[in-house]
Amino acid sequence: MTTLDILGIGNAIVDVLARAEEEVLVRHGMAKGGMALIGPDQAETIYADMGPGVESSGGSAANTCAAAAALGARVGYLGKVADDALGAVFRHDITAAGVHFPTAPLAGGAPTARCLILVTPDGQRTMNTFLGACVTFGEADLDAAAIAGASVTYLEGYLFDPPAAQAAFRAAARIAHAAGRKVAITLSDPFCVERHREAFLAFVREEADIVFANEAEIRALYHAQSFEQAAAAVRADVGLAALTRSEQGSVILAGEAMHRVDAAPAQVVDTTGAGDSYAAGFLAALTAGHPLPECGRWASIAAAEAISHFGARPQADLKALVAGGPKGVAAALG
Amino acid sequence: MTTLDILGIGNAIVDVLARAEEEVLVRHGMAKGGMALIGPDQAETIYADMGPGVESSGGSAANTCAAAAALGARVGYLGKVADDALGAVFRHDITAAGVHFPTAPLAGGAPTARCLILVTPDGQRTMNTFLGACVTFGEADLDAAAIAGASVTYLEGYLFDPPAAQAAFRAAARIAHAAGRKVAITLSDPFCVERHREAFLAFVREEADIVFANEAEIRALYHAQSFEQAAAAVRADVGLAALTRSEQGSVILAGEAMHRVDAAPAQVVDTTGAGDSYAAGFLAALTAGHPLPECGRWASIAAAEAISHFGARPQADLKALVAGGPKGVAAALG
């Protein structure tokens, strides 16, 4: 018997969001729409050049966990914060979202990670992450009982960046598989995939049962010329893949089967958290026993909710949105 | 010659906003729409019972300063944060808003103040403030040159709560008047007025040139049976008063003259910062040399912008809103 539907593992981060003009991205040499790792000095420089901000809990897998819990899934999360004010904010928010969060905070080391997110007028987000306490996440932080009791252990690709986390990833996958559970991974970011491409490929081929990726990420993984070529490659490597294509919707690949899923209608305010919420909708429906097209529908609805407001975590009643169907979404988000 | 249009002095606070049902207010015995002072233990208890939150810089006078700067005024601010992460957030946000902020942070003492704000489904905000580092604000934190160089020194009534701040208030008023400048005060909150009623009355009668208050606050100050009775009392005590009445607009009293100002149309999302933005619009227009009815129009537009979104600081382009007139507001906020 499972004790959790989803156990997420990822970088525990507090987001600092501010609206920014394109010229700020250019001035700092940022790759628009991507995530760059920054050190404390660079964090100071970029922050000083940002407008007034809003702080809210983030972290890719943590966002997924919060949204999946809002959809009724039983969810746990592992990730490293520091024993500081922002760490307390992160812990409060994920706990208040109904997610079990057993990881002990880091005492006396680096501060809680933060991600400086610049949202341009077109709603795209460009992220700059100072990993802080996250770099200490390792095998010792794995909660073996939680992993063994979860239907799906969900890993964010960003965790390939902190040095000790890759080994923890592998260990988590072994624990999950030994207990007969599934392992899911999201590729997170094309630059992150490029940084760790061999490790990503090996993990997808050897450990992953479910892969989430957008077009840029899956093409980066296989150095593919086209989306179709990348889709064929991942289909050969994993049993289940969900590939997102922004407003063109998504494609679910499961063995011989392929399901095309429409994007749910939404007014784009801020794309932060869109992919995280997509995975949340998909996994919440999957672990609730729904067929794949329904998983895709939940995923699209959750993603549409995420992009319709400023910030990564859900603000609308996701359960009501998926119950209401596409018409309910348009009414709630329009 | 003035070096600033407005110098604000107040409690430097980071807001933690979360949506909450009425029953949460009842459970904690909160007075809806008011501000209560809480200690660190109570802050823990209330925070634990709040849903996922969003952090953003707040503080009544600081909100006013940020909005006035957005309207083109030259603005400075004095208030005490700690030398911690939330203090850095506060300093960044007010500086990024274009406000001069010379107050040194408190090192090694209480943390930066935070205000736990519960926003009920009707858009009303109920505030619980842990004053933290603010209680150390005193005369030593006054920047005499900044005060003497500012057209208006603007004081928030909440500063009657921290023990050393009342003396600093009086000292600031003396510096301002000695330089031939004006002193403005907002009464902030009816409960705060009740806590310090004699001190408020003395300050209004002896030091204030301009008074801002809503109906509940001005009635609390004079223990008045009606709005009209309170208005008559304040008119006798100060040269200029702006009294707000929510959707009924506001009344500006200046000697024999009285101007009624309509509220600007707005969809109420969260009333946090409405009064702060009203004062910002009023003072920005006043120090720019506009006649009182125009000051009232700017004030109403800024207040409407504040209540149309979650959080206290302006998110729309306030300059464009006041330039566009009432039609521009409806278009931008509708």
Fold and architecture overview:
- 2 copies of one chain form a homodimer.
- With 334 residues, the first copy, chain A, is α/β, with parallel strands linked by helices.
- In chain A, helix 3 (60-70) crosses helix 11 (274-287), helix 9 (215-222) packs across helix 10 (227-237) and helix 12 (292-307) packs across helix 13.
- Chain A has one domain (4-12, 59-110, 132-333): 3-Layer(aba) Sandwich (UDP-N-acetylmuramoyl-L-alanine:D-glutamate ligase), CATH 3.40.1190.20.
- Helix content of chain A is 41%, strand content 21%.
- Chain A has an 8-stranded mixed beta sheet with strand order 5-1-8-9-10-11-12-13, with helices on both faces.
- The first copy, chain A, has 13 helices and 13 strands.
- In chain A, strand 8, helix 6 and strand 9 form a beta-alpha-beta unit.
- The longest helix of chain A is centred in the last third of the chain and has 16 residues, at 292-307.
- The A-B interface holds A 16, 18, 47-48, 50-57, 66, 84-86, 89, 92-94, 96-97, 111-112, 311, 313 and B 16, 18, 47-48, 50-57, 66, 84-86, 89, 92-94, 96-97, 111, 311, 313.
Can you give me a brief rundown of this structure?
Chain A is built from 13 helices and 13 strands. With 334 residues, the first copy, chain A, is α/β, with parallel strands linked by helices.
One letter per element, helices H and strands E, the order of chain A comes to EEHEHEHEHEEHEHEHHEHHEEEHHH
Helix content of chain A: 40-55%
Computed CA radius of gyration of chain A, to the nearest angstrom: 18 Å
Q: How much of the residues of chain A is beta strand, in percent?
A: 15-25%
Identify the most extensive interface between protein chains.
A-B, 26 and 25 residues
- What is the general shape of chain A? globular
Structural class of chain A: alpha/beta
Oligomeric description of these chains: homodimer
Distance between the termini of chain A: 41 Å
Q: Which consecutive residue ranges of chain A, at least 5 long each, have pLDDT under 50?
A: 326-334
What is the correct CATH architecture of chain A? Answer: 3-Layer(aba) Sandwich
Instruction: Give the number of domains of chain A.
Output: 1
* CATH homologous superfamily (4th level) name of chain A: Ribokinase
Mean pLDDT of chain A: 95
Query: Which sheet architecture does the biggest sheet of chain A show?
Result: 8 strands, mixed
Tally the helices of chain A: what do you get?
A: 13
The CATH topology name of chain A reads UDP-N-acetylmuramoyl-L-alanine:D-glutamate ligase
